[in-house]
Amino acid sequence: MPESTPFFQVALNLPHAGRVARRILLLISDLPRTKHVSFDGVVAAATKLEGMLVPYLELEDNPPALIAARVRQEAATLGRKLVDEIETAGVGHDRLGQCVRNLFECLELGREGAAISLRAGEDPKSFQRPF
């Protein structure tokens, strides 16, 4: 992604990342199922991501710095895997892509989120995207 591409720079927020991961799982649960597309990888990746962030949902702030850094890295890795699965299954759409971007923003990875969300289906002309 070019350095000039706009993105939202947000401070690390694991509680909100957990809420976004839950939204992603709900959006994936609502996808129309067809016998020609396997959702197993998408569902597994989203479930693993949400499950990993559940312990932080009800916190008012991030856990201690060492734990937060580890969780951030693991969540980003799972988020990337999720996007790979969404792309492979061909089930991305604008709202799902927006949630992926929001997840990466909450992980202090706004630049990456602005790029990877497009692979998850976010409309590049969406009014929700940074400009």
Note the main attributes of this structure.
131 residues, mainly alpha, 5 helices
Describe this structure in words.
- The protein is an all-alpha fold and 131 residues long.
- It has one domain (14-119).
- Helix content is 60%, strand content 0%.
- It has helices at residues 14-29, 40-53, 65-89, 94-106, 110-119.
- The longest helix is centred in the middle third of the chain and has 25 residues, at 65-89.
- It is globular and about 45 Å long.
- The model has no long low-confidence stretch (mean pLDDT 92).
Quick rundown:
The protein is an all-alpha fold. The chain has one domain. The longest helix is centred in the middle third of the chain and has 25 residues.
**What integer is the average pLDDT?**
92
How many domains, as an integer?
A: 1
Quaternary state of this entry equals: single chain
- Characterize the main sheet: none
Coarse shape: globular
Radius of gyration: 14 Å
Number of helices: 5
What structural class results from the helix and strand content?
A: mainly alpha
The poorly predicted ranges are none
SSE topology string:
HHHHH
Number of separate strands: 0
**Proportion of residues in helical segments:** 55-70%
Determine the strand fraction and express it as a percent band: under 5%
Terminal Cα span: 14 Å
Give the topology, please.
Blueprint: H1 14-29, H2 40-53, H3 65-89, H4 94-106, H5 110-119
Helix pairs in contact: 1-2, 1-4, 2-3, 4-5
